[in-house]
Amino acid sequence: MEALPARARMYVTGVAVAGLLCLLPAVPLSSAPLSLTLPLPLSAASGPDAPWGAVALLAVLYAGCERLARSRHLGAPNPGGTFHPVLLAAAFLLPPSAAALVALPGALLTPVEQRPFLARRIWRAGQLTLAVWAAGRAHLAAGGREAVADGDVPAALGAAGASVLVFCLVLTLLDRGILALAGGVPFRRGNRAPRPECRRTTWRRTRRRPRRNTRQTTWWRLFLRSLAPVAVHGLAGLMMALLWRSPYGPVAALLVLLPMCVSWWAFAQYHRERAAHQATIRALVQAVDIKDGYTRGHSERVGQASTMIARELGMDDERTEVLRFAGILHDVGKLGVPTRLLTKDGPLTPEERRVIELHPEYGHEMVRGISFLGEARAAVLHHHERLDGSGYPYGLAGAQIPESARVVAVADAFDAMTSNRSYSRARPVPVALDELQRCAGDHFDPRMVEALVRAIGRTGWHPAVTAEDVRQPPGPPAPPVDEPADEPVAAQVADPPGARR
Length: 501
Prior knowledge:
By secondary structure, the protein is mainly α.
């Protein structure tokens, strides 16, 4: 635990001690019979009411399932909480202290991937023990044990709902506390003061923190975000408890886990496929960045701006993700352009410019076989088209240009104006937005431009290299490029004389 701040160590220790105190009433279990059959509940909270057999079976089941969910070959990324139904079933069936004991072996034996290992195991054990104990107390106070024993489904649903709320609330508050003490994340939304060790950071680095991240990590937002999946787990746990108390016994209760295991396996496969997609995209983007050092980071920023536009237009999450891919991969065709043209400091000749203008077609050929990209492939091909038909490669106009390409075109031009290039200096964000609005209708779709203006007005824009950053990109200084007075700046940056885009 030496890697944690002193306050965080004290917090983890306190949570672990509180968890142990919750387990103390379960000590009389040593004299209980080794049986899977549960006695009818009285009003007792612990002791002989909970047989060791049921506790051991649920504990082994939870530990085995959690270990399987985190295995290298079958597990999914961030599988925590996959088998919370087992813990909630224990809270519905057993006294609170005995139910808390079910979580202990799995929390201590499940592999930990990040340091400090011991502190993380202790924290997870203390957190789950407290959460299950609190859920069991809430279920007991709501009369849930009697309802489950009698098969009174409506009453059992109400008690299970109260238990799920308490379980989720305890997990959220404990998580928020450790984040506040170990990670410096403010516990409340209004607390935006920087940590002492961050007060010497530069203005630009401090400003790059997105304000919305602070809002998203507020404890009640975490609570609301995790309540729905925990509620589903609670329903599964209640089904286990009702079947366990039924004439069919524990075997029928365990069958409830089969559909959950199937859904978990499908979830794991989805994340594996998604990870492969992300790795493919990263490899392509890194190859472009290595080839054209002046635009390093440009692809990610265009992807970010495309995402902002898509969300502002109300697109669903799946399409927003596709547009992010489109923004990231829009320049992948540069891999087919000679490096000497991409890194040339002076203006391009007409012949060289024609070669540069082939990069959308090169890019489309490279990604056309990647099925998960969907309409992102059309954006790669048409992101240099203009509404007035003066773009390339096919001179499409108006509605002929795919919507995804119109989104990426605005994002691409905006980042080009706000980033240092070999042929131009970065411009301030307000100037770039003004130029985009001036070019809306001729070169860019006005809907996309206004969506970006609104999104940046609400959340801000913090590129890696901005107009306020006075550092020059590596390499010799670029000669100035004459800007025709009758052409808007956005149009020049989108396709300037001598541009490498």
